[in-house]
Amino acid sequence: MSAKIIDGKQIAAEMREQLKAEVAGLAKKGIVPGLGVVLVGDDPASKSYVTAKQKACQEIGIYSDDNRLPESTPQKDLINVVNRLNKDPKIHGILTQLPFPKHINETEVLLTIDPAKDVDGFHPINVGKFVTGHKAFLPCTPHGVVRLLIRCGVKIEGTDVVIVGRSNIVGKPLANILIQKSPLGNATVTVCHTKTRNLAEHTRRADIVVAAAGRPNTITADMIKDGAVVIDVGVNRIEDPTKKTGYRLVGDVDFERVKEKASMITPVPGGVGPMTITMLLYNTVESAKITTGLA
Q1: Tell me: the pLDDT tens digits for 89-136?
Q2: Is 53 a known active-site residue?
Q3: 120 is catalytic
Q4: pLDDT tens string 240-257
Q5: 207 an active-site residue?
Q6: Which residue among 53, 117, 172, 261 is the active-site one?
Q7: Same domain, 179 and 97
Q8: What is the DSSP string of the chain?
Q9: Does the predicted model carry a pTM greater than 0.85?
Q10: Could you say which of 65, 117, 118, 120 is catalytic?
Q11: CATH number of the domain that 114 lies in?
């Protein structure tokens, strides 16, 4: 029996409608959530992502301050843009699109962002807060994964979760969210990575498997137990001459085979991806509420 396909587009659309109504309510009180976006360079994937974020802001009524800088932009000029957004009362959230060009010190830029406007949840102060169980902005992709599970009726509490991947963007923060003593957590979490021995031994006992390794076919059908929930965070381009672009997108999971064993599974594209932008909007609205004393 095939798995239920988790429709991330539909769930994200439902959440955005709720956010749109909330933003409309704030507007009646004279409050317009604002997001400052900074993109350095011409990376096609980053440009596409930033454009999608701007469109999403417009659709639900969030003000967007777009800053697209040349690849050669000096670090000090980028820092100046971030500091301007830090001081701008119309801006409640700041997003600096990663990756930066090689001459930019990513850590220095992230540390420059006001933690109160760090809607990406990457500032060390916010990371420290949520790891220790205090209220903070949660990183968007991991938060999106958890919201997908909850909205699909997946019980997280008491489950065995195996995360394959230990990045600062997905693997580590997701593990920290899921182990928290909170409605989003209370799971038992194992984090696997490139140095894990006998990966399949870990994934086969998991109730929930999250693939975030950045490599196609990392998770195959023989690596999961019957009825497991499989969340695929990977986005990989592989050559496909039948496509106009010359490539197609696949995740880290062997989708066609794994869906015959799993109870639920996310597709790529259309699974976790739409939730990432939605949670960025969610954090921006929350920041506006906090700033104005409504949260």
Answers
A1: 999 999 999 889 999 999 999 999 999 999 999 999 999 999 998 999
A2: yes
A3: yes
A4: 788 888 788 889 999 999
A5: no
A6: 53
A7: no
A8: -PPEE--HHHHHHHHHHHHHHHHHHHHTTT---EEEEEEES--HHHHHHHHHHHHHHHHHT-EEEEEEE-TT--HHHHHHHHHHHHH-TT--EEEEPSSPPTTS-HHHHHHHS-GGG-TTS-SHHHHHHHHTT---PPPHHHHHHHHHHHHTT---TT-EEEEE---TTTHHHHHHHHTSSSTT---EEEEE-TT-SSHHHHHTT-SEEEE-SSSTTSB-GGGS-TT-EEEE---EEEE-TTSTTSEEEE-SB-HHHHTTT-SEE--SSSSSHHHHHHHHHHHHHHHHHHHTT--
A9: yes
A10: 120
A11: 3.40.50.10860
